[in-house]
Amino acid sequence: MTGHSCPVSITWLEPIDPQDVDAEVTLAGRRHPMRMVTMAAAAEVGAWSGDTPRQVEATFDALAGEWHTRHSPGRTAALGDALDRGVLTEDWTASGDVWLELGAGDGAASATIAARAPRLVAIELSARMLAESPDDGVMRVRADAAALPLDDHAASCVVLMNMLLFPTELDRVLAPDGRLLWLSSRGPATPIYLSAEQVAAALPGRWGGVAGQHGTAHWAVLSRLG
């Protein structure tokens, strides 16, 4: 599952309050059906076709009413850490003002991103998740992240938390100097999980950046190299 053959350059930052997830929970995450979908989507081997998108949408439609109960304060803190230590560094000045949140769910994380983004657009496949989202001023769009209704290079930052990676489409919509934030809230125990190195290797071209851990969450912020 590689988009290129060049070495991946990831610098790991000092972890904050690192915590391990129970071994049985980690094993369950590896065996979860969404792990196979995650790997196949990142490898772009045709997994996101046929009934799969509708099945995933139906799964999250069913979870919509209770999804907010799964969004712990620790997850919000980890997202803030990734944004502050990974995205908003002194050496980065974005060329545009549009940020994307892909797989926004019921909008539980949107406020954390919107507090730092010039302009945030939240994308979600599940109509029921969108219906549960707060009226917080964030522009919300129902769309498939594999085929985004956006111009090329429209986003200066793309945030994916527990979200499938569609490498070619993400590469298309992210500005040349843009940054990608990938976060797995329970690290390798997360059903939708790729390591920082796997994410960088799956993307077209050469990518690198920084990675960290906050609580149980693992995150990476990547950008194009060269």
Q: In what range is the share of β-strand residues?
A: 15-25%
Percent helix, as a range, is 25-40%
- Number of helical segments? 8
* Main beta-sheet annotation: 8 strands, mixed
Nearest-integer average pLDDT = 92
Order of helices and strands: EHHHHEHEHEEHEHEE
Shape: globular
Number of strands: 8
Main sheet strand line-up: 1-7-8-6-5-2-3-4
C-alpha Rg, in Å?
16 Å
* Content-based structural category: alpha/beta
3D structure, described in words:
With 226 residues, this protein is of the alpha/beta class. The protein is 32% helix and 23% strand. The protein contains eight helices and eight strands, in the order βααααβαβαββαβαββ. It has helices spanning 23-31, 33-43, 52-63, 73-87, 110-114, 127-132, 167-173, 196-202; strands spanning 9-12, 98-102, 119-124, 139-142, 155-161, 174-184, 207-214, 217-224. The chain has an eight-stranded mixed beta sheet. The protein is globular. The chain starts with 8 loop residues before the first strand and ends with a strand. The model has no long low-confidence stretch (mean pLDDT 92).
Question: Which terms summarize this structure?
Answer:
8 helices, 8 strands, 226 residues, eight-stranded mixed beta sheet, alpha/beta, single chain
